[in-house]
Design goal:
The protein is mainly alpha-helical. It is built from one helix and no strands.
């Protein structure tokens, strides 16, 4: 009976020690679980913040893309206007060149007529001189 009581006492102490160890392990595990849950909450918050930042960046990208499209359209319109102006300038240069040629031709014609006029004027003076000499 004594042996049995000692055995029961030893077993009870063992169970008590095991229970104590298990309780300590359970407390450590509970603390670890709490720490992990806290980490998870922090990670969720960080994830939400990152998602919000991502959405903001996407919106900014969309705005930038719209601005880029508008600027591109404006540049294309300006390029079109520049090309039209270049064509107009080329046409004006052709007209100017044609006018220069016409002016040159008119100046040549004027010189030729002035020459004929001088020739006729000289003939007229000679005729008048002849007439005056005949009348004397």
């Amino acid at each position: 009976k004594q042996w049995y009581q000692r055995r029961v006492a030893i077993t009870c102490r063992g169970v008590k020690n095991m229970t104590k160890k298990l309780m300590e392990q359970k407390l450590k595990a509970d603390d670890r679980i709490a720490d992990l849950q806290k980490e998870m909450e922090e990670m969720k918050q960080t994830l939400e913040e990152n998602e919000a930042a991502k959405v903001t960046l996407l919106e900014e990208c969309e705005d930038s893309e719209e601005e880029l499209e508008a600027a591109t359209a404006e540049n294309e319109e300006e390029d079109k206007i520049c090309k039209e102006l270049e064509l107009e300038i080329e046409n004006n240069l052709r007209v100017i060149e044609g006018n220069k040629n016409e002016l040159y031709n008119l100046e040549q014609e004027k010189l030729m007529k002035e020459g004929k006029h001088a020739e006729l004027d000289a003939k007229l003076k000679a005729f008048i001189q002849e007439c005056m000499e005949m009348s004397l």
